[in-house]
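User: Here's a chain of 447 residues. Predict its fold as tokens.
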Amino acid sequence: MSVYSLRLRLMSLAVVWVIVSLVAAALVLQYLFTTNVERSAREEMTATIARLAALIIPEANPPAIRSPLADPRYDTPFGGRYWQIEAIDTQTVTRSRSMWDEGIDVPDNYEGVFHHSMPNDRHLILLTRRLQVDGPAGPRTYLVTVGQDHDPIYRATQAFARDTTRLLILLGGAILAAAYLLLLLGLGPISRMRQSIEAVHRGDAPRLEGRFPSEIEPLVDELNRLLAVRAVMTDRARARAADLAHGLKTPLAALHGIADRLRESGNTHEADLLQDLSYEMSERVDYQLKLSVLRPRTGTDNASSSLNTAVLRTLAVLKKTGRGETLHWVAELGTDYLVDIHRQDLMELVGVLMENAAKWASSRVVVQSRLADNRAILNISDDGPGIADHHSARLGERGHRLDESLPGTGLGLAIAREILALNNGEISFTRADIGGLSVSVSLPLAR
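Assistant: Prediction complete.
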């Protein structure tokens, strides 16, 4: 998946948002749970202070209570519940049996919740209040402190945190799975639209087909209109090129007739000059006609054509020509490679290269195919005169010929270069092992 993928961006945003939301929810839930547990503990300690206030004996010194509290943990050493009563006037202190011999140091003039550490790593949460109790000798002030172990509260919050984490992880996974499914369903029409565009690029369909959501239907309609306009303009351009070519053929045929009459009248020089000009014009008209039917490539469309099929069909045609019947053809073809080029363009490419080899060969043409660097390589060699190495770079230049001994304009190799430029192909020229020219063509394999 590409880093520029809309699906990846939306899914990444969903993952970040879910993680941030769940972490924030976990922190808030943990805070609320801890706050509620501690509030419950404070309410319980407040109620215990109220019960102790009702049980204090005002005339007793040191302080005493009429009866023990109902919770047995106050009478069990380190039982988890504690109380302490300090008479302010006499500075005497009475503690619950659970305190054993430990006392609680209450900060001076303090009332409220505070924490205290006891032996054996016990941590207490405590609540202290100043109370006035009326007695026979008048009101007396007491500092009453109650508390409980903080470890159960801590363990409860830790257990709640673990359970909440597991739940939120499961919830996050379910949310992300639903988000991914939503993306698949939501972006499905875009994927279908991309497939329809690829079908148009391949030439399998003239327009985008299928039903699309109303949100992207206007875009599909606009693309179809653009495709229709492009098709009309392309057809018109090809028709005009064909009309121009056919319109020129009649004057060119007339020029051939004039050249023949000039030759019959003895004006051989002007006849040959007129004949050469008319042949060159005919070749250029044919060249432009061939270029007009080449299929443009965008780089995103796919094509698949059999290399062996193109070679064998071209070979069968050339063997039936006058020049091809006199040559010995050798086709050393291995695995049939499917190349990324339209079938008609591949036929045109192979045709012009093999025709060029047949024109210059003395007696033999060798056609070979192989695979190199994930590309199909086609070699066409002849045993003709060949070319010098320093001329190989100029082969295939439009209208440029290195040898004028045979008729032609050199546009065949120029057409080959045009086809390869449109299809991400490459061409090179070297001296063949059998003495003539070796043309090597490299084409990408079909995707």
